[in-house]
Each structure stands twice: as structure tokens, then as C-alpha cells.
Fold:
Amino acid sequence: MTSPTLSVVDDGSDVERPTRRDQIKEAALFLFAERGYQGTSMEAIARRVGVRASSLYNHIDSKQKLLVEIMTTTMEDLIAGFQEATREGDLVEKLRRAMEAHVNYHALHQPDVRVGNGELLSLEEPARSAVIELRSRYARMWQRLIESGEREGVFRMPSAQLATYALLEMGIGVALWYRADGPLSLDYIASVYSEMAAHLLGLGD
Structure:
């Protein structure tokens, strides 16, 4: 992904200004989430950015490349968030922080989640297999954490694999209903979900 350019504002501070490529990617993300990949044309993306369709190709090769970048970035961000959340602390702390990171991402990146969950079949090979592998890697990271807790007698559950699926689906579901202007703060939601994750794995029983 191209790094944003920097511009100097009147107060002398450096602020990031989105590049044209960033603008194109954001427009594509919005439209893919709203209309679906197949229902979005390069012309529609160009109109949203405010440029001619032909000029898009100065910045991006194809609509497919935009989809690949969006879906790959989503999984890479989730993996990086898990790694950061579980860098330190005991297993219980890692679990709670991982769940909070998982919930926060899905609440704050609803269009990305909608595209990521709905457009896998729109990816062409080898990108589809690469994204599937990133998804599997993310799930394996969760399962290894749970299995470590099981071996140490910290977590108790019938199946580490099923527990992994349950926790992942819990967090993904937040993207379906969370509203920034809703009655519950995101900090509160993430905290409650981390508590539910702990209970699912037998803590506090």
C-alpha cells in the first residue's frame, strides 16, 4: 500500500493527506460493501473519487487488484492486532486482550468486514487461496492460545477448535449491529466480550 503523502498546514504541523490511490481504495471499499463486488464498476469508483475512469488505471491495475488489497489488508491487520494483544502477560490476559482487539476491529471496520465475509468467491486465484491461508493462520493463532491454556490447566472446554470458532464468530457478529452512536460504548462492549470469552473457556466457573 502506498504511504500517504505529507502536507504542511498553517500551524506548522505535519498531517497525512490521502494519496489518490488511498482515495480510490476507500471508494472501492465503500461501493463493494454497499453494492457488492460484481455490482460495482470502475466507472462508479471513478465517479465517487471525482475523476475519469481512465485515470484510475494510472494508480491501480484493475478492480480485482482493489479487492485483493482490501481483503488481504483486513486479514493482515487482524493478525497484527492479535500479535500485539498477546505479546505480554499471562494466558488469561492474552485471551482478554485478544478478544478486545478482535471486537474493536470488527466494530470499527464494518465495510472491510462486510467485503471480507461476502466476497471471497469474487477473488481470483492465487489471491483466493492466499486470503484463505491468512484466515486459517488467524484461526490457528487463536487455537494455539486456547490449547496452551488447556495444557496448563487454565482453560477448560470440550474442544479448543470449537471454542476458537465460537470466539471468532462472537467478534465478527459485532460488525452487524454496532453503532458508534448507540447506547453502549465500544470500550464497554469489548470488555463484556472479553469477560464472555473467559467464561466460555471455563474461567470463573
